[in-house]
Design brief:
It is a single chain. Helix 2 packs antiparallel against helix 3. By secondary structure, the protein is mainly alpha-helical. The protein is 45% helix and 1% strand. It has a two-stranded antiparallel ribbon. A hairpin with a 2-residue loop joins strand 1 and strand 2.
């Protein structure tokens, strides 16, 4: 175990993020010992220490005897107890019944145990100045993951205690992306709905989120332009002295500059790959369509369709207006 990252002891002052880092490092360290791995499984449980329940409720199997399992558990719990405040050591060693119960003991000690008050802080998440959009998205996901219902939680749902750890559902992940878009700009979901109309028929918002990130600079530029236009129209229609005209418009948070990725809406509507080139650079446009796109008047005349004026005169019987009188 010499190559395992060094584990540190929790201090009396910890934040939820520092506890999460400590927890992840500890779990990784424990998985390196094959004797500890059975206790880290999602459904692994054991009994509290009791004279009437020898070996913490374990039974013999082909790999380990009940006594050996109990010995391995005490060794693991003793190891965990070395890296927590000493007030928690006895509770973890004697009263824990699973790994989630250990995390609950520690979270309760620091005051960030699971509660609906903690969950409702989801409504206070905002896009901070200078924050990368992807970091905002990961903060939203992390908050939801930290508030999933777990075993041994005091919270009841539908009048019953949770019997197994909750897993984040696809719908919750979709709602997380929707919340993320609304925090970036209140009109971003509507623009995404128009732009990715074809993709939204076959993909969820969770799978589409990386593409939204790629196109975000262009989306914000378009939305900011629309905000300026609407504010001018609103100001002109209500007059300079109107109280409503002085209400502040939406101001997007500043964010680090990044490269705007081109996209071709013609290819998007046809279901082709549309990132990386603009409409004017689309290889599917004809020469004359590209000329029209740049404002150059084009004539759809080809050599095979050209008719000589003399031939037209002979066929119609009309005199050539340019003939010598």
């Amino acid at each position: 175990m010499s190559n395992i990252p060094k584990q540190w002891k929790l201090t009396e002052e910890e934040s939820f993020s520092s506890f999460t880092s400590w927890q992840q490092n500890l779990v990784y360290l424990l998985t390196q010992d094959k004797n500890f791995r059975p206790f880290l499984l999602k459904d692994a449980t054991w009994n509290k220490e009791s004279p009437t329940a020898p070996n913490r409720g374990f039974t013999d199997d082909d790999e380990f005897s009940a006594a050996q399992k109990s010995s391995n558990l005490y060794q693991m719990l003793g190891l965990v107890a070395q890296w927590v405040p000493h007030y928690l050591c006895t509770d973890i060693v004697k009263n824990s019944t699973s790994m989630p119960s250990i995390w609950q003991i520690i979270r309760k000690y620091y005051g960030f145990q699971q509660s609906e008050t903690q969950f409702m802080k989801f409504a206070t998440i905002v896009w901070e100045d200078g924050e990368r959009p992807e970091r905002l998205y990961q903060r939203i996901i992390a908050h939801l993951q930290d508030n999933l219902l777990v075993q041994d939680s005091k919270l009841m749902h539908d009048g019953e205690h949770v019997t197994s750890p909750e897993v984040m559902s696809p719908t919750v992940e979709r709602l997380a992306v929707l919340k993320w878009m609304e925090l970036i700009h209140p009109h971003l979901p509507a623009l995404v709905q128009r732009t990715f109309a074809f993709d939204l028929q076959r993909m969820t918002l969770k799978d589409l989120q990386p593409q939204i990130v790629d196109a975000l600079d262009g989306f914000l530029e378009e939305l900011n332009h629309e905000d300026v236009k609407s504010s001018r129209v609103s100001f002109g229609s209500r007059g300079r002295g109107s109280a409503k005209s002085r209400t502040s418009n939406y101001r997007p948070r500043s964010r680090p500059p990044s490269r705007v990725r081109k996209q071709c809406r013609i290819c998007k509507s046809e279901g082709r790959r549309y990132f990386g080139h603009s409409i004017s650079e689309c290889e599917y446009l004809t020469h004359y369509e590209r000329m029209d796109l740049h404002g150059i008047k084009s004539y759809n005349v080809v050599a095979d369709d050209y008719e000589d004026p003399e031939d037209v005169t002979m066929e119609t019987g009309m005199e050539d207006p340019h003939a010598d009188s």
